[in-house]
TrEMBL record:
Keyword Transferase: yes
GO CC annotation terms, alphabetical: cytoplasm
Organism of derivation: Hungatella effluvii
Binding site for K(+): 129
Annotated EC: 2.7.1.33
Protein name per the record: Type III pantothenate kinase
Length: 254
């Protein structure tokens, strides 16, 4: 089993995966104040919850968009496994042709998503990753990564709305029963959830127009289950997409 870790701005996804199955996918809060020991305990506890011994870890791979924490988590993994993790970055063999103004600026999480999607879905592909930011990446019919868009994630939008308007409360993101809200909380929740669903639907339409054909649609990220049921397009949800991509990159570069 490979220990696969994706470090995002809000959450760190920790998973165990091999060629046959995904053993677990868990999330811990990204905290710049934690030490390598604290993250090591987090990983060890997750393994224990799933009744998996540390000895079952054959290797580890990490992707990160949080530079201040990268070395901390790498150290944590080595502390509990005795193995030096592989880090996704420039110079790594990906097999992905990136057609961007500056390919080196493409986030490692977007590359990992794209590598996994190319294996499991026919091109062209639109990949939606819903985390702190919502990203929509495009792979053309030839399998090239050609770009995408980035907009604020659900929680960022909601927290900004609540913090900047004194009379608007902080709310959860459970699924609304109807579009038209009957109270302030429902109006806010519906605006965020249906607004993001409509935005995703609209961007998919425009991207497919530019591609000149329908695309495979796949979404991942912790907030995706809150929005996808409200979208009018049929979008495949793949919780383990990042882990699958990390496994592919590990196998290509070990």
């Amino acid at each position: 089993m490979i220990l696969a870790i994706d470090m995002g701005n809000s959450n760190i996804v920790i998973g165990g995966i091999d060629d046959s199955r995904t053993w677990f996918v868990e999330r811990v809060t990204t905290n710049l104040g934690k030490t390598d020991l604290e993250y090591a305990v987090n990983i060890k506890d997750i393994m224990a919850i799933h009744n998996l011994p540390l000895s079952s870890i054959e290797g580890a791979v990490v992707s990160s968009v949080v530079p201040p924490l990268t070395d901390v988590v790498l150290s944590a993994v080595k502390k509990i496994t005795g193995k030096t993790p592989m880090l996704v970055g420039s110079g790594m063999k990906t097999g992905l042709n990136i057609i961007m103004d500056n390919p080196k600026t493409v986030g490692s999480d977007l590359i990992v998503d794209a590598v996994a999607a190319l294996k499991d879905y026919p091109s062209p592909i639109i990949i939606i990753d819903m985390g702190t930011a919502t990203t929509m990446s495009v792979i053309d019919r030839a399998g090239n990564y050609t770009g995408g868009i980035i907009f604020p994630g659900l929680r960022v939008s909601l927290d900004s709305l609540s913090s900047r308007a004194a009379q608007l409360p902080y709310i959860g993101l459970n699924r609304p029963a109807r579009v038209i809200g009957k109270n302030t909380i429902d109006c806010m929740k519906n605006g965020i959830l249906y607004g993001n669903a409509a935005m995703i639907d609209g961007i998919i339409d425009r991207m497919q127009e530019e591609l000149g054909q329908a695309a495979s649609l796949v979404a991942t990220g912790g907030l995706a289950p809150s929005v996808l049921p409200l979208c009018r397009h049929k979008i495949n949800y793949d919780e383990a997409l990042l882990l699958k991509g990390l496994l592919i990159l590990y196998e290509k570069n070990k």
